[in-house]
Amino acid sequence: MMDYLRIFIEASFGFAALFLLTKVLGKSQFNQITPFDFISAILLGELVGNALYDPDVGVLQIGFAILTWGVLMYVTELITQKLKGTRGFLEGQPSIVIHKGKIAYDELKQNKLDINQLQHLLRAKDVFSIQEVEYAVMETDGSISVLKKSMDQNPTRSDLNLAPQPTPLPMAFISDGEVLWDNLKEAGFDKNWLLTQLQQQEITDYTDVLFAEYKEGEDLYVLPYN
């Protein structure tokens, strides 16, 4: 019975202390969480969780662990505010993964990001075609910010009182030098058509293509590695 009471007391204390810590550090600290913050939070949770079932660890030890983590996070935040030169090291830096409509392949590799993941992040921003993007920035918290090309920005057709038109869904035909044969077949094309399209853009081998996208009624959009 005493073990259950001890766990209840320590769990209640840990919950209250963590809740207080989130209030002290502020909402932005957790809304704009960096990989370092994420790992630190996991480690803190492990410390508190393990302490609950360790009879040799009491409320004071749990409180000390939470307080130490909170102080370290607060000091880190102060350092980044006062010393701008430390921000890149402690918080990371945003990366431009699409620059002037072109995919920055080196930046993708540096951020351990492939084409499929990039498309997923763009779709989360209501962008279904890479062709619409002028700039895309990979933020330090793993999200992506998108600036569309001028022709794809507002005003919309409804703003101009124009009749609606069909909206074709873009399909990726090549990703990271690999042909997506299922997509090609679904669109009604074959290998010969693809090679012809590439040759028209002076590309002889599809393995030289980082990304190729097709939108009905338009030419094949091709981004080579270089």
Task: Describe the overall structure.
The protein is α+β, with helices and mostly antiparallel strands and 226 residues long. Helices cover 47% and strands 15% of the residues. The protein is built from nine helices and eight strands. The strands form two sheets. Strands 2-1-3-4 form a four-stranded antiparallel β-sheet. Strands 6-5-7-8 form a four-stranded antiparallel β-sheet. The chain is elongated. It starts with a helix and ends with a strand.
Which properties best describe this structure?
226 residues; alpha+beta; four-stranded antiparallel sheet; 9 helices; 47% helix; elongated
Tally of helical runs = 9
**Structural category:** alpha+beta
Indicate the percent of residues in helices.
Answer: 40-55%
Contiguous uncertain segments of 5+ residues: 27-31
Number of strands: 8
Order of helices and strands: HHHHHEEHHEEEEHHEE
Rg value: 25 Å
Q: What percentage of amino acids are in beta strands?
A: 15-25%
Walk across the major sheet and give the strand order: 2-1-3-4
Largest sheet: 4 strands, antiparallel
Task: Describe the global form.
Answer: elongated
Question: Which secondary structure elements does this structure contain, and how are they paired or packed?
Answer:
Layout: H1 2-25, H2 27-31, H3 35-52, H4 59-82, H5 87-91, E1 95-99, E2 102-103, H6 105-110, H7 115-123, E3 133-138, E4 144-148, E5 171-175, E6 178-179, H8 181-186, H9 191-200, E7 209-214, E8 221-224
Antiparallel strand pairs: 1-2, 1-3, 3-4, 5-6, 5-7, 7-8
